[in-house]
Amino acid sequence: MIIDAHCDVLLKLWDDKLDFAMSENLQINEQKWRRSPVKVQCFAIFVPPNVPQESQFQAALEMVTLFFEKIIEPYNDIKFIKNKQDLLALKEHERGAILTLEGCHVIGNDINKLKTLIQLGVRAVGLTWNQANAVADGVGEKRGAGISSFGEEVIALLNQEQIWTDVSHLSYQGFFDVMGQAEFVMASHSNVRSLCNHRRNLDNKQIQALIDKDGWIGVTFVPYFTKNAEVVTYHDTIDHVLSYISLGAANCLGFGSDFDGIDKYINGLENITGYHTLTSLLQQKLTPQQWNNISHQNFINKFPKNR
After folding, report:
1. Are 193 and 202 a contacting pair, CB within 8 Å?
2. Which of 1, 142, 194, 285 is the 20 to 30 Å CA partner of 65?
3. For each of the chain's 307 residues, which pLDDT tens digit applies?
């Protein structure tokens, strides 16, 4: 059993009008998902920054509609996960789908829009994408500012509603602001910076802060977050898993593939079925307890909303 904390299927369903059931242009479609060992998949609402501000929230709502109409409703055995009890109640033949938000630019400076998305089922909220918004600066913003006053209001709401605050894509200052304010923290798709020096990866100080905070970290399958090389393979992904463990993060670790959010792939991890290869190799390198925790149990243990 594997839980994957991040993919961008909803963006492709919305932007490219692809068919979730069988489109070969999706790294995760219904058929590939069923052929994979992934039991629970998180689906991110990500509205591209080129969408006009006044249309962004509408686009987010359209992606929520696609989530229910294309992923949940057509399949009796794919369950909408709203809380930890739903996760624990999944039967052996069932799969779970969780709704997340990648970037608060879609809410502008209106907290009620975030409340609406939470009511619709969003259970993890990435404060930014790479750019700045009313909540905080993203990792691509030159000034590198942290959380705004409105951002503090957002984090207070997430704490109150028992929703994960996701720091992937957040500025360095914003990351540490979150550590001081948020109760439930994740980095849904970020790798180890000492192995691959990319601004989206976590340095040792950030990793230690997440460990201290009892947070959750998803190893991601973005090749240029994994190795600065022309060819990147699943062995390089395994290096990041082992590096996180060596830094003490074994009880915080999981996966956040970023499938369908990337246009270059890691060899052996071209789509969700690649988890089979990754699983068999990692199980040789980890203890059964470590694998159990990393594949799914850490995520379940830390899922903030109980019921």
Report:
1. yes
2. 1
3. 999 999 999 999 999 999 999 999 999 999 999 999 999 999 999 999 999 999 999 999 999 999 999 999 999 999 999 999 999 999 999 999 999 999 999 999 999 999 999 999 999 999 999 999 999 999 999 999 999 999 999 999 999 999 999 999 999 999 999 999 999 999 999 999 999 999 999 999 999 999 999 999 999 999 999 999 999 999 999 999 999 999 999 999 999 999 999 999 999 999 999 999 999 999 999 999 999 999 999 999 999 999 9
**Tokens linked to 166:** 């996701």
Output the six-digit token pair for 216: 């959750």
Burial 85-120 (b: 16+ CB within 10 A, else e): ebbeebeeeebbbbbbbbbbbbbbeeeebbebbbee
CA distances from 161 to 83, 124, 135, 261, 268 (A): 11, 11, 18, 28, 38
The Cα–Cα gap between 162 and 305 comes to: 5
Give the total residue count for the chain: 307
Which of 110, 102, 260, 120 shows the shortest CA–CA distance to 187? 102
In this structure, which amino acid lies at residue 128?
Answer: T
